[in-house]
UniProtKB/TrEMBL annotation:
UniProt entry keywords in alphabetical sequence: ATP-binding, Kinase, Nucleotide-binding, Transferase, Two-component regulatory system
Reactions accelerated catalytically: ATP + protein L-histidine = ADP + protein N-phospho-L-histidine
InterPro entries xrefs: HATPase_C_sf, HATPase_dom, His_kinase_dom, Sig_transdc_His_kin-like_C
Protein name, as recorded: histidine kinase
GO annotation terms (biological process): phosphorelay signal transduction system
Gene expressing this chain: glnK_1
PANTHER family per record: C4-DICARBOXYLATE TRANSPORT SENSOR PROTEIN DCTB, SENSOR HISTIDINE KINASE
EC number(s) on file: 2.7.13.3
Gene Ontology MF terms in the entry: ATP binding; protein histidine kinase activity
A Pfam family: HATPase_c
Length: 439
């Protein structure tokens, strides 16, 4: 309520001040001011305020302010009666203007600029005509309706120009505002996709880990039964607690770990499934996300890296998170392999019944004979400033995801500028395509 009251006061005050920026076209007290233009813009910009009340307040404030100016800066000996007769018709303008805007329901047509501008034309023209009628009637002492076609044409043209300019300016601001909102939403969408990509990878490995946990639980239980049998046959020495009980305790603990892992996986799966907006994306959109993220990563590391793409397929796929995970991993590795400056090239094409993704970089390359080892978990050539080795599971993650999709991930050594190339091949049937696309 306070906010609305403050907005009305601000609007009325600004209209009152802008009303003094004027010109007088008919050699009379009738004036064309910027106040009415600002008032029209404010009514369509601030949509929560009551139009009729605001119009009465704005008109009254304009009249009162002009009477006050006559008193402060008198051209002739000040007369309250003459000053009121001179400026009171301005109230008629704002009341008529607000009434037309209210009757035309202008706020319903904010997304239809032509209709909104025409309502503004009607309000502006009829408001000026009403002010002229009131001004002449007060001057002659009786109801007087002036008909001077030249004046009416001028007011109509002025109403058209002013209203369409104001609505055009309003739409420019609205478009810019919507563009900023779209960019902000796009950034949020990209962040959600990257987070979803990380969750997708972790979910895949959690599923894999649960398989191992299940096997350990089974083996622990079998061990418990065997040890218990050996204890019954007095093959094993008696301990307190018995060895069989210890084996059963291990099996129970592993079973609890499995249950906790299942709960975590269930929660992660719900989060991933809720990202319906990212259930299908075009390949070019996926690559744009990957390139934007890795360009920021390169700049964060202080490296000058040029990215090149060669895309020869048009694809819309449901394997969004899988592709994001694999390509992000390969590009980040390529960035880390480059010392200070270099280039990375990403090529995508179809080879028979397979899609081929190739990531090449101009980095330091892979030592001869190590191509078969770099996909092993724990293999790494990266160390931090304290000399601690990296985990070495990135490429193992990537290969596992690719193999889950029925594809392959290989590496080859080349010559500058493409020293190292990682090649991902995925079956066409795995990456669903949009009907009618030539892929």
């Amino acid at each position: 309520m306070r906010s609305k009251f403050f907005m009305i006061l601000l609007l009325v005050g600004a209209t009152m001040l802008f009303g003094e920026l004027k010109f007088q076209p008919f050699n009379s007290e009738f004036r064309i001011s910027f106040g009415s233009a600002f008032f029209f813009f404010a009514l369509i910009w601030v949509r929560e305020i009551p139009i009729l009340l605001t119009s009465v307040l704005a008109g009254s404030a304009v009249v009162g302010f002009r009477i006050f100016l006559d008193f402060i800066f008198p051209v002739h000996p000040f007369s309250v009666h003459e000053s009121v007769l001179t400026h009171l018709p301005s109230l008629a303008f704002y009341m008529a203007f607000g009434l037309i805007m209210w009757m035309g329901r202008a706020w319903r047509y904010l997304q239809q600029p032509i209709r909104l501008a025409l309502i503004g034309v009607a309000a502006d023209f009829l408001g000026n005509v009403t002010e002229l009628i009131v001004r002449k009637s007060l001057s002659y002492g009786y109801m007087y309706v002036p008909v001077v076609w030249q004046n009416e044409y001028f007011l109509l043209i002025l109403a058209f120009v002013r209203s369409f300019l104001i609505v055009g300016f309003f739409n420019i601001i609205e478009i810019r505002h919507l563009r900023e909102i779209h960019e902000e939403q796009q950034l949020r969408f990209e962040k959600l996709l990257m987070i979803g990509s990380d969750l997708h990878v972790e979910a895949l490995y959690l599923k894999k880990m649960m398989g191992h946990i299940e096997q350990v639980t089974r083996n622990s239980y079998h061990l418990y039964r065997d040890v218990k049998q050996y204890e019954a046959d007095s093959v094993l020495p008696k301990k307190e607690p018995p060895l069989s009980r210890r084996a059963l305790f291990i099996a129970e603990e592993v079973h609890e770990i499995k249950k906790d892992s299942q709960r975590i996986l269930s929660g992660m799966s719900k989060i991933i499934q809720q990202e319906e907006a990212a259930s299908r994306l075009g390949l070019r959109d996926i690559l744009r996300l990957v390139l934007n993220a890795n360009d920021k990563y390169a700049r964060m590391l202080g490296k000058k890296i040029q990215f090149f793409t060669d895309i020869q397929v048009a694809l819309v796929t449901e394997e969004v998170y899988s592709l994001l995970s694999v390509l992000n991993n390969l590009l980040s590795n390529a960035i880390e392999a480059i010392e200070e400056e270099g280039r990375i090239t990403l090529r995508i094409r179809r080879e028979g019944n397979m899609f081929m993704f190739a990531v090449s970089d101009s980095g330091s390359g892979i030592a001869e004979g190590e191509e078969d080892y770099i996909f092993n978990p724990g293999y790494t050539t990266k160390y931090d400033e304290q000399g601690n080795a990296s985990t070495g599971i990135g490429l193992a993650h990537a290969r596992h995801i690719v193999e889950q999709l029925g594809g392959t991930l290989t590496v080859s050594r080349g010559q500058a500028p493409e020293v190292t190339t990682f090649i991902v091949r995925l079956p066409v049937g795995v990456l669903r395509k949009r009907e009618g696309e030539n892929v």
